[in-house]
Specification:
This protein is an alpha/beta fold. The chain has 10 helices and 13 strands. Pfam families: RsgA_GTPase (PF03193).
Length: about 350
């Protein structure tokens, strides 16, 4: 393996067999203008030609973390991205409330640091949303509790998170007293691509600066009036860690919409509920009026929190709705594609 590939956490799953001179990794993306890392250094790049023509959705364009093939590698020109190599994982969310489009936050990720600030009350329901997406992506989640100096009973907070995390590592980090950095650093291997996700102002950029050992990213305090974070990071960017591995910073997310097709992520996140469902007498149990329903029995006994069950049902309905919307969109796109092909054929 070339030193460039080792430095930027290339993994065998990418399976590139072409010239090393044409291989690159996307390290920055801003409005379809990219910065890519090559064996000759970081260079500006754009998508043109067949790759752009064949793209039918945002997912078909490169995102930060992607490995790509260049059309050429002329040191004096803006590079052209010729091919997007297959992803082995991607962190995807719904772009916004109105559109049925996906937004890829990062690609070819091995671990996701979900950063939660202890300066404010932990939103367990939002954490569940994060976990559904991460488990579906193929990456492994790690929960980072930032600003640990601001909570009186850290262990009690960890135990509360553990009830949702279900075995996921939960690490505390205190930037003021520099506690927890080594424990976090020890979770990162030389071939890891890490991405940080979380609300604005939870300390993602500060954590990256500490792991990099220098001030690469601007940071701001949250507003005192409402404890809402300010958007310090405005785009996604990949950095090389000094001890190996790479890390991706992302803008803060005040809302996090699921993307269709995340049913396995839902089952993994709510594995406790999934086990109960499997114990129900009937395979098609609706957990309403049916006899011998393990879910109803657990709710009645206090073994399953009603809020957690309600969250599971809500996310399940959200995914089902997205699935219907996405299928309709794909059908419309397919119809549009064939109509265009027919028109081109008639013009010959």
């Amino acid at each position: 393996m070339h030193e460039f590939q080792k430095t930027y956490a290339y993994r065998p799953e990418i399976n590139y067999r072409g010239s090393i001179k044409l291989l690159a990794r996307v390290i920055n993306e801003q409005k379809e203008r990219y910065t890519v890392q090559t064996i000759y250094g970081a260079r500006p790049a754009v998508v043109k030609g067949k790759l752009r023509h064949d793209a039918s959705s945002r997912e078909d364009f490169p995102s930060v973390g992607d490995w790509i093939v260049l059309k050429q590698n002329n040191p004096h020109d803006v590079l052209i991205i010729d091919e997007l190599l297959p992803r082995f994982s991607s962190i995807v969310r719904k772009a916004d409330e109105l559109e049925t489009n996906a937004q890829i936050l990062a690609s070819n990720v091995t671990k996701v640091f979900i950063v939660l600030s202890l300066e404010e009350k932990i939103n367990v329901r939002k954490l569940e949303r994060f976990l559904v997406t991460v488990w579906e992506s193929g990456a492994s989640p790690i929960i980072i509790l930032s600003k640990a100096d601001l909570v009186e009973d850290l262990e009690a907070t960890k135990q509360k998170i553990d009830q949702v995390a279900l075995g996921i590592p939960v690490l505390a980090w205190d930037a003021v007293n520099k506690i927890g950095k080594e424990e976090i650093r020890n979770t990162i291997h030389v071939d890891d691509t890490i991405v940080l996700i979380g609300n604005s102002g939870v300390g993602k950029s500060t954590l990256i600066n500490h792991l990099l050992g220098k001030e690469m990213l601007k940071t701001q305090a949250v507003r005192d009036s409402d404890k809402r974070g300010r958007h310090t990071t405005t785009h996604r960017e990949l950095f090389r860690l000094p001890e190996g591995g790479v890390i991706i910073d992302t803008p803060g997310m005040r809302s996090f919409l699921l993307w269709a097709g995340e049913e396995s992520g839902l089952s993994h996140t709510f594995s406790d509920i999934q086990m109960l469902i499997e114990k129900c007498r009937f395979n098609d149990c609706l957990h309403d009026t049916e006899p011998d329903c393990a879910v109803k029995e657990a709710l009645a006994a206090g073994e399953l929190e009603k809020e957690r069950w309600d969250s599971y049902v809500k996310l399940q309905k959200e995914l089902a709705y997205l699935e219907r919307r996405q299928n309709a969109r794909l059908a419309a796109e397919e119809k549009k594609k064939w109509k265009k092909a027919t028109m081109q054929h008639r013009m010959r």
